Amino acid sequence: MWKLKRTTTCGDLRASDVGKTVVLNGWVDARRDFGSLVFVDLRDRYGKTQILFSPDRDRAVHDLAAKLRGETVIAVKGVVRKRDADTINRKIATGEIEIDALELEVINEAKTPPFEIGDRVNVSEEMRLQHRFLDLRRPAMQRNIVTRHKIVQTIREYMDASGFIDIETPYMVKFTPGGARNFVCPSRLYPGKFFALAESPQIFKQLFMVSGLDKYYQIARCFRDEDLRADRQMEFTQLDIEMSFVQREDVMEAVEGAVAAVWKRLLGIDLPMPFARMSYDESERDYGTDKPDLRFGLKICDVSELVKDAEFKVFSETVKKGGVVRGLVAPGGGVFSRKEIEGLETYCKGIGAKGMVSLKIEPGWKAGGPSAKFFPEALVRALVERTGAKEGDLMLFIADEEEKAASVLGGLRLALRDKLKLVKDDVYRFCWVLDFPMFEVSEEGKVGAKHHPFTSPMDEYLDILEKEPMKVRAKAYDLVLNGVELGGGSIRIHQRELQQRIFKLLGLTEDYARDRFGFLLDAFEFGAPPHGGIALGIDRLAMLILGLDNIRDVITFPKTQSTVDLMTGAPGTITEKMMKELHIRVVE
RNA sequence: GGGGGUGUAGCUCAAUUGGCUAGAGCGCCAGCUUGUCACGCUGGAGGUUGCGGGUUCGAACCCCGUCACCCUCGCCA
Q1: What is the pLDDT of residue A418?
Q2: Chain B bases near protein Cβ (<7 Å)
Q3: A31, A59, A258, A269: least surrounded by Cβ within 10 Å?
Q4: Length A344 CA → B62 C1' (Å)
Q5: Are residues A51 and A152 in the same domain?
Q6: Residue A346 class from Cβ within 10 Å (0-12 exposed, 13-18 middle, 19+ buried)?
Q7: What's the CA A131/C1' B48 distance, rounded, in angstroms?
Q8: Which nucleotide is nearest to A562 if distance is taken from CA to C1'?
Q9: CATH number of domain containing A537
């Protein structure tokens, strides 16, 4: 039990509080010992306050303070005192005052921490995750957590004000095929049967619409047993939304409002509305991806038509075989060394390219580089005109089948963004990507849903659904920010017959579809309204607002890339007894 | 499962072509210090160079294997 309970925090006191007797609680951030005078910076979530321990005031208190170590939890009672003009610390909010200590209580001593608690030292992430409770004591991490709180708070206020209601859905659900792998939970009551952790609240929120609850939202945790990335954790948080009697513009408008409210509150920025819109085809063609980074140019150009009869066989043969030749311009890339250009080609090969052709633009429509001799002046002139290249630039071309050329150039475009430092901080370019294909073909040739199987096809494609499924476009939309997919959604199917047609196209037998989704199909027969929604990644949103490149810094206890919690050691084994009770056995 | 990067003191890093007792800053310990605020000064302790094996007169450095962390492809409807 400790005696001195705080009357204020370490971030509150100002010159106007001079003369007050206060009690502060907190952690020793630093101690500066002058033999006689001892200064202690006391820290809590709200800030830092300097405490002065003078031997003239109380010898015993001073001597105790001289022995304080970093991170010890203490309580100090003292008088707020104005600092002399030349000893004011402009770097901290409480820098005009200090506490003249009368009493000191050591509440809990601390061992020397494995790393310094502060923002100025770079500590390896491994070390931080192992001692996350100390890492979270650092001001930078506290700022991330508070920002995340403010984002969620702003969203909740906005959603409530817009008539949305926060409704919870189960996390323990029935396994659903397709999509992300589920985590599975055995139950002692059902041998051989398993719950699954929800990969998303998708079906439940659709059923809310059937129930007439309309305008649903939830800040929901989702669980997916897939490999991790810088922007992916096995459990993550979504802003999940579903609305009835809407078309896609209605959903997009609602999301834009919520996002704009967040940007206004957190960054003071008025986002231009509505956000940019782009079709999936346009995005793939111009940016080589379905999540374009619009903060810089470097659009991809198709030059197939210009080179189809060229002497340069790599180009002409590719076009004759039905492929394409596309390229982009690296501004000022004429100065790249041969090694740098080779580096770019290696990068392209790493993401699936057969090769990369580069042409420097030299004075007088001349081309430079190893392949230059194959490019007569007229062709160079045409290429330059088509791509908009200028003297001193470097044109980079990929010849391949269309999809491959697009994706390689999409990657190359981002590599050039980083290499040439083409984007500034604090620029936010939102974009909706629309008109996604309904289906995609996996490597094994299986037809799968591009978004998910509940997405509605666009009306004009209903007739060719079975005949030419790959031509069908969906009423789906993705929200993209600076090349990061923030979220996606769609107008859903609300008729049993259409839903069954889609299941069938995806290769689900009627029996299987009924077993897994029977309740949904049934629901559609009891008066299902047209509805649609979206889900946005809250972790990614927080990451982008904070200018971070890693989702783990906005999650309190994240897993490593190998899905391990370095602090708790999870996952761990369970006892034989538990396994028996759960009717499960480990098989090698 | 594939590709790439990293691993040296408590922490962050250095160590020339394979060659001196493996160093520095911070932190830690002791002492000095009445206006510091990343205090300063003096001294000190601290190393299985991730782990295992190999090559060599000699390995932090080269080779093989392995582990951990990071980035990435596949995967993430």
Answers
A1: 84
A2: 1, 3, 10-13, 26-29, 32-40, 68-77
A3: A59
A4: 30
A5: no
A6: exposed
A7: 24
A8: B69
A9: 3.30.930.10
Span CA (A588) to C1' (B67), Å: 21
Do A198 and A269 fall within a single domain? yes
Q: Looking at residue A461, what is its pLDDT?
A: 96
Are A47 and A92 spatial neighbours (Cβ–Cβ below 8 Å)? yes
State which residues of chain A have pLDDT below 50: none
Give how far the C-alpha of residue A283 lies from the chain's centroid of Cα atoms, to the nearest Å. Answer: 20
Spatial distance from the CA of A229 to the C1' of B13 (Å): 27
Classify strands A165-166 and A216-223 as parallel, antiparallel or unpaired: parallel
Query: What does chain A come to in residues?
Result: 588
Q: What domain range is A74 assigned to?
A: 15-108
Q: Which nucleotide is nearest to A450 (CA to C1')?
A: B77
> So what's the pLDDT on residue A133?
96
Tell me, yes or no, whether A176 and A71 share the same domain. Answer: no
Same-domain status, A413 and A445: no
Which nucleotide is at minimal CA–C1' distance from A37?
B34
pLDDT tens column, A443-452: 666 788 899 9
Q: How far apart are CA A552 and CA A110, in angstroms?
A: 27
Measure, in angstroms, how far nucleotide B25 C1' is from residue A36 CA: 28
A38 CA, B31 C1': Å apart: 16
Q: What is the pLDDT of residues A91-137, one digit of tens each?
A: 999 999 999 999 999 999 999 999 999 887 789 999 999 999 999 99
What number is the ipTM of this complex? 0.92
Whether A149 and A178 map to the same domain: the answer is yes
What's the pLDDT score for residue A351?
Answer: 82
Nucleotide nearest to A177 in CA–C1' terms: B77
Res A367: pLDDT:
87
